[in-house]
Amino acid sequence: MKFTDRLWRSVEDIWNGYLEHPFVDGLGAGTLDEEKFQHWLKQDYVYLMEYSRLMAIGADKAPDLKTMQMFSELLHGTLHGEMALHRAYAAEFGISEAVLLETRPSAVNTAYTSYMLNHASRGDAAAVAACLLACAWSYNFIGNHLVKKYPNQENNPYRQWVDTYSGEDFTELNGTAMTLLNELAEGKPERELEALEEIVVTTSLYEYMFWDMCEKKEAWPIQAKL
């Protein structure tokens, strides 16, 4: 049994919760409020910058060239694939890249990325791979679900989102992320596997909180003058 098979049993209920979330379902149905999507767009853009740092950390901690190349593939796909999608959508909404870059991460966004970077800095390459997995895998999971539930995407303003995360390129990228963790987890003692599993479960919970944050257009509970 692959380690990701074990992980699936631990996150299945959480991820099924994504599918029922109004923000996620609104993406597939094309009914999501534009302001909520713009909030996701800006928050996820700054999230992806921190997410990319994880891959750079992983490449640095890679035990061999093959692992280094896999982290590099994930980094390239994020910087030149996902972030390009965000910039394209931003242009449609009249949002410049400068505005994206100036976005202040929300409280949930800050907590999520800080959690991942903390574990990535303290752990080995497997810990970094565990930090990365929930985002890539769950977005592919959501994309595949939405394209099946809503097969007619012709008039959906978020069609490109659904097509991207259910598409061949992102599916391949997610496959790399899954293979990476499976290979790095191989032969590890149970206590280390449990620690990796906890990371994947916790980041899965953060993913739900991220969807919720975007649905509610949350930033911080109190504003500061910066």
UniProtKB/TrEMBL annotation:
The keyword Hydrolase applies. Catalyzes an amino-pyrimidine hydrolysis reaction at the C5' of the pyrimidine moiety of thiamine compounds, a reaction that is part of a thiamine salvage pathway. Thus, catalyzes the conversion of 4-amino-5-aminomethyl-2-methylpyrimidine to 4-amino-5-hydroxymethyl-2-methylpyrimidine (HMP). Is also able to catalyze the hydrolytic cleavage of thiamine; however, this thiaminase activity may not be physiologically relevant. Therefore, is probably involved in the regeneration of the thiamine pyrimidine from thiamine degraded products present in the environment, rather than in thiamine degradation. Its EC number is 3.5.99.2. NCBIfam families: salvage_TenA (TIGR04306). Residues 8-214 form the Thiaminase-2/PQQC domain. This is Aminopyrimidine aminohydrolase. Belongs to the TenA family. Pathway: Cofactor biosynthesis; thiamine diphosphate biosynthesis.
